[in-house]
Amino acid sequence: MFVYILTFLLSLVLYTLYKLIINDNKNIRKSSRKAILPPGSMGWPYIGETIQLYSQDPNFFFSTRQRRYGEIFKTRILGYPCIMLASPEAARFVLVSQAQLFKPTYPKSKENLIGPSALFFHQGDYHENIRKLVKRSLSPDTIRNLVPEIESSALSLINSWSDGAPINTYQQMKKYSFEVGILSIFGQLEVHLKEELYKNYSILNQGYNSFPTNLPGTSYRSALKARKRMVQILGEILKERENMQIENNLLSGFLNLKDKDNRSLILDEEQIIDNIIGVLFAAQDTTASVITWILKYLHDYPKLLEAVMAEQKTIQKSKDKEDCLLTWKHTRNMPITYKVMLETLRMATIISFTFREAVTDVEYKGFLIPKGWKVMPLFRNIHHNPEFFTDPQKFDPSRFEVAPKPNTFMPFGSGVHSCPGNALAKQEILVMVHHLVTKFRWEVLGSQSGIQYGPFPVPIQGLPARFWKESSI
Ligand code: HEM
Question: Whole-model pTM?
């Protein structure tokens, strides 16, 4: 009898469990059946809408689809199914509140050039530990001590220009942002090492932006070789610095990395080198492109240039009186220039979008984002949406007298992968603008309009221009 009762009870428990599981599964199936793919066109088999994206202004590609389909739409680019998201809430969902459901994703060919251990390819503990260190090394507290060196890099570059000789503004600014990147990583570094790193990094960067075929004579093959030479140079620098006293720079941080419980974490040489190349990569074209755009906008809006110049000349006079160089405090007191910088970051939106990949099926506002699909928050569309920025095509720094609505202004991204270099970038931009407007006048050569994507948007041909020292006018 007892056995019958036990069997009956056991069956009851098993049946209840079975019903629960079935119901659960039904619910899951029901919710994913309810969630539908967003609207949009997947284009041709495999190539999707790649040709449309790369044969026209990408702004046009994104904005026409946003108008047609709304804030979330699907497409296929370079063989990958993608979901594009053009609203602040959706960007926040992917980058901040549900960031664990989306991992960073880059083509393998690009990852191999930067180095697979660079922090922006990772998630979880490894990413968190490296990111904390990078953030600390690039924090305002650390940067304020770098101002004299940043200033000296700016001065040495602009003093090398011959009066009135044409220069490619973007290429010149790339030299400057590379130099500042090196400064934040190594502190002081011998000139011949800097030059070798610059030469090889420039080849690597060219290959990064080329078609990734590893055949003799291609830019991609040259870039892989340049990377090998960089690894060798960086390896020698590491050996030299290994036994040096702890300094306040990124390399020293990599050599003395601790986890959240203050336990030493040993990074191997490859991890350190990949992260150094990663930071150089993240720091150079971005900042150079923003400075180039600022110079273009100041050239196009003479009244604004006058206002920025007046602000900077007041600072120059005050430091002449105090007989001092530009200080951190001076750069905190540049409200007009600061707003010009913010408006440039909005208008030009150097990083138009970023890529993530869904690690599981995700539902957002009734739409399904399937596992494995690429997800792209479109910063540019958000920055150019009239709902958040009135008359968005107008360059108007005064709009930043009022703080933008939350999550509508993300030139440095948002969430766990947001830019740890933003304070350094702003600092070097302000220092360069101070010296250019107080010492030089400039004229843009050739076409005055047009944008080139390489891949960051820059004024056409890198803004060829002539600069004159004010004293010689
Ligand atoms: C105006 C110049 C810059 C702009 C507009 C910019 C923008 C961005 C954006 C949008 C991201 C996030 C990308 C994503 O979510 O996928 C990012 C990440 C990053 N940036 Fe910047 N950046 C600039 C300058 C710099 C500088 C000067 C450095 C370093 C010296 C730097 C280092 C990094 C690093 C290491 C990451 C990856 C962070 C992570 O994955 O946790 N950036 N940047």
Answer: 0.91
